[in-house]
């Protein structure tokens, strides 16, 4: 009997709490400053991702008629969530989108073009890779926030011991053949379980090899965008048909297959310099000579310096240098009732005052070229090398309205190659799966 | 009937109707991004399942996984229960420890095992290399990856099975065991010839529950192996999740789900028949 | 004398076996927890450098701090999420038990044609993987205007075949003489249910409630999908590991989040263990 009473009490309490949680706050009163009252805009954000609360608060202060309510999901589920809620009324006004998914959601009608709201001269200042990634069918859907790129980080203390000085300019960048030789030379201990890896095991995603952002650049670098249009070298560089309808003859070219063999040699056999399995912090812990990592690592290493000297050298290539770009971006939902304010927020937090302040505080890369003095850190090495790569070599991941599927399937294919699958048949298999998905 | 009605009402509204929608979706081809743009394909999605060897192998992997989990969980769960049924100091603490993984979310246990099994610097491989042996790629080589997620899932479920068996053991009348011991039966004989048959209902429940849980396992493939290498750990629910949310193919995902339902139904039917005829007297 | 010596040896070896088994259990089941617990107090740079080579440092934070816990609680709105999870789990348990025990009573006490078939039909839903149901159920909840509320998280699961199965077993164990006597005394079926049957299956009800609580607390995908607003986020979603490609995961915070999300359950089950065992035992599984 006691139990029943306790349960009844608990259920009443819980119900009351539910009701309290359901009563949402309504729009504010009209005031002299805000004739329409204070409007609340909702932002869907991935956990641990920008825009940070601090900069949202700054924006609210400058735009006092608007409040921003933030809803969060784990990054892994951001695309899932957007797919489900995007096409419905009453969803968020501003959507955070992983850069390469922008075209997918734009094509499905989930996003609003923001061309009308862009500041004057945007087209001249925007980083080319951002424009390529974030526009669709001639319209702009986002400005992007920070840009990212890849760098080959090295443990200078270790390399000094071997008398090796990696290249410091893009023109002198290593090819993968040269880089892999150095990595082998630098590796310490048994290849199966080295004390120091030549190349740090991937720390991307869940840590397994094959992440498309990082590892695809090796395949694409075997191509050549200056070759004849439609030639196999040209197609290898772009990695997807211009119409986005097939990858056959793009991902499984002779160039791509031979690059995949180079890629596999990093993981298998007597030439291996890294491991199939991720080892978080391997580079910072001094367990690796090199790390092929995002530009965010530079900020982390500067914030908590390791007990060795480090540097950055341009990402190695096979025929043509290339690095991937892109990060999460802010876009406006096509369902919003406040398109102008939502677009203003998305642009301000991207390339406006608040957005640039965040980028600078983080020592990362803005999505526009700017002479603003707060970005002086981009002029000195090692960050200048990353910035040069971004501007001169940067390409978005292959633009497509099916990037989610492309990313998933290509990552799986690359992973299997790293784990020892035959490169040619793995790529052909991937091509047929991706083409199935593209046809849908 | 009046007592069953509220339950049935909720079951119909929140289970049968969505299951009906699921079955309906399995006859269509569409994407989540454009849910209104649907094309009726009849049994086309099911034909795709049968035609694609990488999909049929998913079912094979799942059955192997379920079998592996059963083979580990049922006997080990039983032995742990027999052990816990004895008297020794700290019994309740040991019981709590065995039960810990059951109350921990599978996301957390998967993360733990991911780092325990990782090749370079994982706990297990650190121990192996400490003995002077070569490290093993538990999560990224065939067949180790599948073995690893089987062991991890079994580890998580043993506590549950043990508690179920324990309750069964405690309800076996002491005088039956006494009588057998007086007749000179050995300890092992008592367990296998007397206790086990008396516990056929518990065993059936454990076997069916574990089968259903294993057929529906998702997190180990999602968080620890991403279905790899080369689809060797691609459990069917992981394939469903991928098809629905990553590959924009919810019609196909629905067809896969209908197939899983059907297989689970057949398997649990066979299991009940088999275990009942063997052990009822 | 000889017999006594043999007994002594036998006892000794039994003790040795017991100790060995306990040691295996502790290593296999407890070490992973110790590692994750100690890691949650470490900063990012020491978590993995301590593991290899294997040493006691793996399991003991030498320079431990609560920084991971503070930053997790601060940035992830843990208090709110915890409250949401408690509300959802408690309500789910209550409704599941009410519906389940009423249905179990109906199925076992008031025999009607086709009750066996009905039970079979109910159990079938147990065989559908939840991940597969998410897409149609999400659309359906939209049609019902039930999305974006705490209710939406638990309502679809309160007609639980698992709970019904467990409760039905227990109800069947109660001798029918008990309720027949009550009917003779003039009690109606509802009174028999409330005053005669329920009290005698109390421990099963509690055990079943705990299992439902466990399922509810640990669910992830459905609460994530059905609710958008942070105001309704549950703890498992709040602490989920999350890093975009091109960013670096913060493992210390991940582990601290895992401990925060798991600890309440461990505490509850530490105190309620007796009930689970009793509950399962009295459900007549044997």
UniProtKB/TrEMBL annotation, chain C:
Keyword annotations from UniProtKB, A to Z: Cell membrane, Membrane, Transmembrane, Transmembrane helix, Transport
Domain of life: Bacteria
PROSITE patterns cross-referenced by the UniProt entry: ABC_TM1 (PS50928)
Biological process (GO), any one: transmembrane transport
ABC transmembrane type-1 domain sequence ranges: 82-272
Chain segments annotated as coiled-coil in the UniProt record: none
Ranges annotated as spanning the membrane: 12-36, 86-105, 117-139, 151-171, 192-217, 255-272
GO CC, one annotated term: plasma membrane
Location(s), subcellular: Cell membrane
Family statement: Belongs to the binding-protein-dependent transport system permease family.
The protein's name in its UniProt record: Carbohydrate ABC transporter permease
Organism: Naasia lichenicola
């Amino acid at each position: 009997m006691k139990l029943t009473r306790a349960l009844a009490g608990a259920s009443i309490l819980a119900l009351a709490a539910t009701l309290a949680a359901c009563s949402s706050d309504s729009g504010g009163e009209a005031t002299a400053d805000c004739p329409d009252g204070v409007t609340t805009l909702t932002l869907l954000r991935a956990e641990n991702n920008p825009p940070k609360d601090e900069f949202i608060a700054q924006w609210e202060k400058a735009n006092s008629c608007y409040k921003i309510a933030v809803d969060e999901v784990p990054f892994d589920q951001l695309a899932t969530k957007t797919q489900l809620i995007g096409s419905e009324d009453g969803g968020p006004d501003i959507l955070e989108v992983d850069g390469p998914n922008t075209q997918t959601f734009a094509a499905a009608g989930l996003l609003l073009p923001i061309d009308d709201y862009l500041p004057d001269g945007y087209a001249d200042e925007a980083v080319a890779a951002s424009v390529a990634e974030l526009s669709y069918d001639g319209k702009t859907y986002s400005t992007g926030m920070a840009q990212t790129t890849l760098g080959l980080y090295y443990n200078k203390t270790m390399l000094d011991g071997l008398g090796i000085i990696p290249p410091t300019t893009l023109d002198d960048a290593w090819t993968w053949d040269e880089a892999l030789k150095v990595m082998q030379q630098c590796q310490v201990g048994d290849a199966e379980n080295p004390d120091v890896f030549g190349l740090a095991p991937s720390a991307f995603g869940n840590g397994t090899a094959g992440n498309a952002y990082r590892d695809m650049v090796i395949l694409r670098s075997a191509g050549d965008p200056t070759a004849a249009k439609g030639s196999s070298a040209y197609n290898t560089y772009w990695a997807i048909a211009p119409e986005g309808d097939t990858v056959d003859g793009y991902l499984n070219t002779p160039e791509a297959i031979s690059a995949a063999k180079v890629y596999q040699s990093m993981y298998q056999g007597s030439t291996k310099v890294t491991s199939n399995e991720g080892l978080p912090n391997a580079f910072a812990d001094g367990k690796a000579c090199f790390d092929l990592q995002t530009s965010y690592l530079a900020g982390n290493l500067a914030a908590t310096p390791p007990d060795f000297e480090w540097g950055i050298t341009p990402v190695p290539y096979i025929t043509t240098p290339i690095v991937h770009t892109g990060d999460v971006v802010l876009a406006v939902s096509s369902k919003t009732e406040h398109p102008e304010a939502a677009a203003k927020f998305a642009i301000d937090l991207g390339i406006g005052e608040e957005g640039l302040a965040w980028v600078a505080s983080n020592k990362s890369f803005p999505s526009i070229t700017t002479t603003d003095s707060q970005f002086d850190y981009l002029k000195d090495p090692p960050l200048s090398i990353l910035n040069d790569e971004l501007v001169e070599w940067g390409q978005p991941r292959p633009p497509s309205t099916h990037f989610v599927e492309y990313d998933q399937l290509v990552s799986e294919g690359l992973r299997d190659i790293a784990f020892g699958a035959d490169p040619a048949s793995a790529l052909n298999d991937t091509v047929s799966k991706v083409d199935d998905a593209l046809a849908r | 009937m009046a007592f069953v009605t509220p339950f049935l009402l909720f079951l119909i509204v929140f289970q049968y109707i969505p299951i009906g929608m699921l079955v309906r979706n399995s006859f269509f081809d569409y994407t989540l991004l454009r849910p209104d743009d649907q094309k009726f394909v009849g049994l086309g999605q099911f034909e795709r399942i049968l035609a694609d060897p990488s999909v049929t192998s998913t079912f094979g992997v799942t059955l192997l996984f379920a079998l592996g989990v059963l083979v580990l969980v049922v006997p080990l769960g039983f032995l742990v229960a027999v052990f816990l049924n004895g008297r020794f100091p700290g019994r309740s603490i040991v019981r709590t420890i065995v039960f810990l993984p059951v109350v921990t979310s599978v996301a957390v246990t998967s993360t733990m095992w991911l780092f325990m099994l990782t090749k370079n610097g994982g706990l297990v491989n650190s121990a192996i290399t400490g003995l002077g042996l070569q490290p093993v790629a538990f999560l990224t080589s065939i067949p180790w990856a599948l073995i690893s997620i089987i062991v991890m899932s079994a580890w998580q479920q043993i506590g549950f099975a043990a508690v179920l068996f324990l309750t069964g053991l405690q309800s076996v009348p002491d005088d039956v065991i006494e009588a057998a011991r007086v007749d000179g039966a050995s300890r092992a004989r008592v367990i296998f010839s007397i206790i086990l048959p008396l516990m056929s209902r518990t065993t059936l429940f454990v076997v069916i529950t574990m089968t259903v849980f294993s057929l529906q396992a998702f997190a180990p493939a999602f968080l620890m192996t991403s279905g790899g290498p080369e689809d060797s750990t691609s459990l069917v629910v992981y394939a469903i999740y991928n098809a629905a949310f990553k590959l924009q193919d919810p019609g196909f995902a629905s067809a896969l789900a209908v197939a899983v339902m059907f297989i689970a139904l057949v398997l649990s039917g066979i299991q009940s028949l088999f275990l009942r005829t063997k052990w009822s007297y | 004398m000889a017999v006594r010596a043999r007994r002594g040896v036998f006892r000794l070896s039994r003790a040795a076996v017991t100790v060995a088994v306990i040691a295996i259990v502790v290593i296999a089941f407890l070490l992973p927890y110790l590692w994750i617990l100690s890691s949650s107090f470490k900063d990012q740079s020491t978590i993995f450098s301590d593991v290899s080579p294997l040493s006691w440092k793996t399991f003991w934070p030498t320079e431990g701090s609560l920084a991971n816990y503070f930053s997790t609680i601060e940035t992830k709105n843990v208090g709110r999420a915890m409250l949401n999870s408690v509300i959802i789990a408690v309500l789910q348990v209550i409704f599941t038990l009410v519906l389940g025990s009423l249905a179990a009573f109906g199925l076992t006490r008031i025999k009607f044609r086709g009750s066996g078939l009905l039970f079979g039909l109910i159990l079938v839903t147990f065989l559908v993987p939840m991940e597969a149901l998410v897409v149609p159920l999400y659309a359906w909840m939209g049609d019902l205007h039930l999305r974006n509320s705490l209710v939406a998280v638990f309502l679809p699961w309160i007609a639980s075949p698992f709970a019904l199965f467990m409760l039905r077993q227990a109800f069947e164990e109660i001798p029918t003489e008990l309720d027949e006597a009550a009917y003779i005394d003039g009690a109606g079926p509802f009174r028999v249910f409330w005053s005669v049957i329920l009290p005698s299956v109390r421990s099963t009800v509690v055990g079943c409630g705990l299992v439902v609580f466990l399922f509810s607390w640990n669910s992830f995908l459905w609460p994530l999908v059905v609710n958008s607003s942070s105001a309704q986020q549950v703890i498992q979603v709040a602490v989920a590991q999350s890093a975009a490609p091109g960013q670096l995961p913060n493992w210390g915070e991940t582990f601290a989040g895992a401990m925060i999300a798991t600890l309440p359950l461990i505490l509850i089950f530490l105190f309620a263990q007796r009930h689970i065992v009793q509950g399962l035992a009295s459900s007549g599984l044997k």
